[in-house]
Design goal:
Layout lengths: L5 E4 L8 E5 L5 E5 L7 H13 L4 H4 L3 H5 L1
Length: 69
């Protein structure tokens, strides 16, 4: 079973892409720029960031980034 994750949209400026944190149970919380909502290139870049953290958006599919891939 894949832990449920959440996507939080936060605007921290034009160079901010996002970060990934987790709850005590290990389920991820992804924090991403609002640009991921409208720009496929930004979603792809964020998915890459997630993969560099050892996670896989395709396994989660709980948000627009996971469903996009």
């Amino acid at each position: 079973m894949v832990p449920r994750s959440d996507l939080v949209i936060a605007d921290h400026g034009e160079v901010f892409l996002g970060w990934i944190t987790q709850r005590p149970d290990g389920s991820p919380i992804c924090v991403a720029t609002p640009r991921v909502e409208t720009d496929p290139a930004e979603r792809k870049a964020f998915r890459r960031l997630v993969s560099l953290e050892g996670r896989d958006c395709a396994r989660c599919c709980n948000c627009l980034i996971g469903r996009d891939g």
